[in-house]
Amino acid sequence: MVSTGPAQPHPGLQAQLSGLAVSASSPAQAHPEPSAPGVWIVGVHGGAGESTISELSALFREAHHRWPQPPPYGSVLCLMAARTNAAGLHNARAAAREWAAGAQPHVVLLGLVLIPDAPGRLPRELARQVTLTSGGVPRVWQLPWVDAWRLHAPGYTALDTTDLPRPVKKLLVDLDELTSLNISKENPSL
Q: Model pTM greater than 0.90?
């Protein structure tokens, strides 16, 4: 985990429309409030890895590419997810600007999970965009390419969490420390 950008929104900023499908204020598309504590995984574009990340813990909730509905009181924990291609990083910056401008005041943004769009090193320009994007969120976790995840079909096949790469385990442990939800304790392979 790398602490990078702001820890809290800055309501004086001007929000721009993010890459998220719809704002939680739209009643037709809003999520119900969670019935138990957890972390909403907000994919900032289609194919961001939101479903796969959501399956790493029963305490993760898939947000379906939009901010969760405000609860009757308090706030909701969110973790954005994006691929490391140009479109994914652009949408992550747009969503981070929206959050930073205070457009989602009920959201406690834990950070951004970046999932590789291809195996191997990032091209220099994409690495530069990762650095730029990192400045807009509280923390960033860069996960490695996991070839086995290509064979995973969320909702159809179970995600194998028995041998997770070290950076994925670190993400879960860091989220434990940030939330006190015992996310990593739930997975005996950590």
A: no
